[in-house]
Amino acid sequence: MIENNDLYERAWEFFLISLHEFIERDRDLIQTAVSERSLCARLMLSMEMLKRHYGFDPYVVDVEYNRIGQGDVKRLHADGGGITADLVMHRRTFTDNLIALEMKWFSQTRDYERKKAADYERLSTFTRRDGGDGSLPRGYVLGLHVEVRRHEGIMCIERFHEGMYDEGLVLTDF
Prior knowledge:
There is one protein chain. By secondary structure, the protein is α+β, with helices and mostly antiparallel strands. The protein is built from three helices and eight strands, in the order ααβββββαβββ. The chain has a six-stranded mixed sheet, sandwiched between helices. Strands 2-3 form a two-stranded antiparallel ribbon. β2 (67-68) and β3 (72-73) form a beta hairpin. It starts with a helix and ends with a strand. The model has no long low-confidence stretch (mean pLDDT 86).
């Protein structure tokens, strides 16, 4: 269980409201199957507009941000390559991390399952609290995997915290 459950629940509520705002504003964009990066950039705008209402003013929302603090590259493993999430909500010059999100268009391919498993590993890493060697991105309060199923008109959202899968939710009618 998360020590600061209030922050976790506030971050979750904030994300859901931001996602609904994004869907309402950019439904046409979602339906045209643009890149995940484009979707994340538009979701970022909703999050930036709503963050003050939830007391998240000190945080910024970045797409594909790959730095820690003053510029060290985030790494999945101490000896591995760089790591990014599709979207993060954090404080850039601190290790105060709130949300890490991976977004994927659903596909029925073997490659998709491999990529989804890699996303889960990243979200598990991002939401762990153990510090490692300082180059590992840790301590995100909420990890999210968003799977867009355009032809079905649904989004499957799965939550992670403290390195573990938490639960899923399906949003319909976008």
